[in-house]
Design brief:
Strand order of the largest sheet: 3-4-9-10-11-12-13-14
Strand content: 15-25%
Radius of gyration: 25 Å
């Protein structure tokens, strides 16, 4: 179904559900990597968003909505611009419209969460509290549909009776929303209670707009094939996945789940890249570990009090480029700029990195553009006396695995200067020259 030039949902599509504290940028991007079609941000309260200022973050290449205390409330990037739905907690039509207009140019759609049963939401008249006030639901949704150009959706839970539930969804349909997500549980029910697939099916058959089935993670969705099975049993247009995607975002991968170790490292790379707050990073990693939290490594993660402590437990591929970028951020410098050329005679690459108007490069030529950029970053880091991405815990299984892979790569590479993952093999040759691609400038 095409709505306002946005493929919001259609048969077979899968969506990363809005989950409190989970739908931050690193998790959303990881879900997209593995095949999620649409991702939702975590529920963000309208009053908090109205205090925010929209900021173009040139260092991270993100759009940030920043509170007066400089806390980033919502962060997004160009890659997910047509994929991310902004999920809002609101109990007031005018406030909801003001927030929607603030963010609509940076997101694919706006969603009102009417299903959250948590006290922080319901005590303000938001979330599941709205289910007992259909007039307010209608006013909020109608105001948004008329007031913005992006698709509007909402997420509900089922009511005590089927008749009341159907009356509500038909009233919601008349507001002009693009789709409705249905968590197939009552507001007092929790994940351990079975999801009411029959109620979702009755809703899907009663309305003409797309219905997104939600709530199947605990009993129904374990692997990719279960997404389609859940869609079929509910007769829904698509499936929204929350906890199953949080446990392992590769649930969206048709070829099957990826190992948890790989997923966690990939998640941490995004967390580092986009400066995710360590408490959220820690929370998401703990959700991935689940039953492994009682292991020694799990306990160390649970006790971690900083991003650095987390990285030491689950080291991502910290590359020289990542180290250089992080240093530039801390020093409030423009992000490094890489210029790479390829030599026609042998198709090898060499890169020059510019940092604070100084240029750095290696004398060696590399077999890939990526390695050439890493070599330039190492030259810069060594010239500035900065760390290159080595990790202290050299005995960890992940570091051992990385070193094995690096040794194998080293054997295939002549005159190697640097290895993937940031571990130096040979000290780079630093040369001074007269062309843009052979200059090493020292500050």
């Amino acid at each position: 179904m095409i709505v306002n030039n946005l493929t919001l949902c259609y048969q077979g599509k899968v969506i990363l559900a809005p989950m409190v504290r989970v739908g931050t940028l690193p998790m959303r991007l990881l879900a997209l990597d593995y095949g999620a079609d649409i991702v939702y941000c975590e529920e963000l309260i309208d009053i908090k968003m109205l205090q925010c200022k929209r900021v173009v973050n040139e260092v991270l290449d993100t759009i940030d909505f920043v509170a007066p205390n400089e806390r980033v409330i919502f962060r997004t990037c160009e890659r997910e611009r047509n994929k991310v739905v902004f999920q809002m907690g609101s109990a007031d039509a005018e406030r909801a419209l003001a927030v929607a207009r603030l963010v609509e140019n940076d997101v694919a759609g706006i969603d009102i969460n009417m299903g959250c049963p948590k006290e922080y939401s319901t005590k303000g008249g938001m979330g599941a509290a709205l289910l007992s006030d259909p007039d307010k639901i209608e006013k909020i949704l109608s105001t948004l549909v008329k007031g913005i150009c992006k698709p509007v959706t909402c997420k509900i839970r089922i009511l005590p009776s089927l008749e009341d539930t159907l009356n509500l969804v038909k009233r919601i349909e008349r507001t002009g929303v693009a789709a409705i997500a249905v968590h197939g549980r009552k507001k007092e029910e929790r994940p351990q209670h079975p999801v009411h697939c029959d109620i979702i099916k009755a809703i899907a058959e009663a309305v003409s707009i797309p219905v997104i089935a939600n709530g199947g993670s605990h009993d129904h969705i374990k692997v990719y094939a279960d997404l389609e099975a859940f869609r079929q049993v509910t007769s829904a247009s698509s499936v929204m996945v929350g906890r199953a995607a949080m446990w392992n975002p590769s649930i969206f991968r048709k070829e099957g789940l990826q190992p948890l170790e790989k997923i966690m490292q990939e998640y941490i790379k995004y967390a580092v890249r986009y400066e995710n707050h360590y408490t959220n990073t820690k929370y998401c990693l703990c959700q991935m570990l689940r039953e492994q939290l009682e292991t020694p490594q799990g306990k160390k993660l649970h006790a971690a009090q900083s991003s650095q402590e987390i990285w030491r437990q689950y080291p991502p591929q910290i590359t020289p480029k990542m180290c250089l970028l992080e240093w530039c951020r801390k020093e409030k410098l423009a992000q490094p700029v890489y210029e790479t050329v390829q030599r026609p005679v042998d198709r090898l690459f060499r890169s020059v990195v510019t940092v604070s108007e100084h240029k750095y490069c290696s004398a060696l030529w590399d077999k890939s553009k990526k390695l050439a950029e890493q070599a330039a970053a190492i030259v810069c880091l060594r010239s500035l006396g900065l760390p290159e991405g080595k990790l202290d815990d050299a005995q960890s299984p992940l570091m051992h695995k990385r070193k094995v892979e690096e040794r194998e790569l080293c054997q295939d590479r002549e005159n190697e200067e640097t290895l993937p993952g940031g571990a130096p093999h040979k000290k780079p040759h630093l040369t001074l020259g007269t062309t843009n691609h052979s200059i090493l400038s020292r500050p």
